[in-house]
Specification:
385 residues, alpha+beta, Aminopeptidase, OB fold (Dihydrolipoamide Acetyltransferase, E2P), eleven-stranded mixed beta sheet, four-stranded antiparallel beta sheet, 10 helices, 20 strands, 29% strand, globular, binds zinc ion
Length: 385
């Protein structure tokens, strides 16, 4: 069902805005997205449970919270999406590109959904821009494989500050590998945004973990105050697998899949499983794919929709993180243009010629908070996040 502009502008409860609450006192504005993928009901159920408990209790509440439905048509059908992935098209909003032809689809259903969601975001920001302490966005998902809970974030210091309060693994720099996500769109607007992945799609624990995450998010951002025992209870619920440290991870490899029908992940992989280089992982177009690097398997694809076959991640050391936090605020950015093979590009960016600048280039730019993407075989483009 489509909702009209006026209902959104009033920010009333609609299919799109499924729950909202405002306290008497000034505080943060939290915007929660659920069901961006229609086959992930855990976030929807968690919002239902949470909203009931909060609406029925007399706990003092600061600021405002909004829960926004994602792909309404796909949610009703229990499908990940109808025409195209609603969590891969947001990059187009930053360009002048035409939406009417996306991935060869003529005006995909998800285009209308994204316009509607964008309208809701704009209305919320406009309504609160005068008095909000902070705007914080969170996007709730689940995975097709078994998994502990984890957080995905674009690697900005503001996002790190928000995410590190949750005792779960944190995956940095997802935006370099997976383009057009809602999180990246929100980050580009200048707000904090983290993604929470609760576990397997149909696992009941995914609902509990989503709920625990939401309670802690409300507490951590100052929207409400939880008692010490409640905090411990929710943290325990989120608690990662003992073999998966709740530290930061970076993405080392991304297996892109053009047509998921051609991709078969070998069975038995769980998210975060450790594996060595050359471990057989999947068949793609009839060929056996082995791990090109060692690390942990991440988001193995066990459904016939989506374009991310699997990723490989590795832990990032604490020293590297502290050093990068320090350097990002420093003056060294001015001097990058003097490095061999580095030329300034538009919009606070640099182009790096890999034939000249070989060693550690990507690492140096990451350390300084740049988003690094490959333009071609020999050129990197680095933009400041
Ligand atoms: Zn999802």
């Amino acid at each position: 069902m489509q909702i009209t502009e006026s209902t959104i502008a009033d920010l009333k409860i609609t299919d799109r805005i499924r729950w909202s609450k405002s306290g008497d006192q000034r505080g943060p504005v939290l915007v929660l997205f659920v069901g961006i993928h229609g086959n992930e009901p855990a976030g929807l159920k968690a919002i239902e449970n949470l909203s009931k408990q909060i609406d029925e209790s007399a706990t003092p509440f600061r600021g405002s919270v909004y829960a926004i439905s994602g792909n309404l048509q796909a949610i009703n059908l229990g499908l990940r999406y109808l025409d195209t992935d609603l969590n891969r098209l947001w990059e187009l909003y930053n360009t002048s590109e035409d939406f009417s032809q996306m991935n060869g689809q003529d005006w995909p259903a998800e285009y209308d959904e994204s316009l509607d969601i964008k309208k809701a975001i704009d209305a919320i920001v406009e309504k609160h821009s005068q008095q909000a302490d902070d705007f914080i966005f969170a996007d709730l998902h689940t995975t097709s494989s078994e998994s502990c809970a984890f957080i995905l974030l674009n690697d900005t210091l503001a996002n790190r500050g928000l995410a590190r309060k949750f005792p779960v693994p944190q995956i940095l720099g997802i935006e370099e590998n997976i383009h057009g996500t809602l999180l990246s769109y929100i980050n580009n607007l200048g707000y904090k945004a983290i993604g929470f992945e609760a576990g397997a799609h149909q696992n009941e624990a995914s609902v509990e973990r989503s709920e625990a995450f939401l309670w802690l998010l409300l507490h951590n951002t100052g929207a409400l105050k939880l008692a010490r025992e409640k905090i411990n209870e929710y943290k325990k619920k989120l608690g990662a697998h003992p073999g998966v440290p709740d530290t930061y991870y970076e993405i080392k490899f991304h297996q892109f899949v053009n047509d998921p029908q051609d991709f078969d992940m070998l069975s038995g992989f769980e998210n975060f499983d450790l594996m060595e280089k050359d471990t057989p992982l999947a068949y793609y177009k009839g060929e056996l794919i082995k791990a090109p690097v060692s690390g942990r398997i991440f988001m193995p694809l066990y459904q016939k929709k989506g374009h991310d076959g699997f990723l490989i991640i590795r832990e990032v050391s604490e020293i590297w993180l502290r050093l990068s936090a320090y350097l990002r605020k420093s003056f060294v950015h001015k001097y990058l243009k003097y490095l061999p093979g580095v030329t300034p590009a538009d919009n606070r960016g640099f182009e790096v010629n890999l034939r000249i600048a070989r060693f550690l280039v990507e690492d140096i730019f990451h350390l300084l908070g740049y988003r690094v993407t490959k333009k071609d075989e020999n050129t990197l483009i680095c933009y400041r996040r």
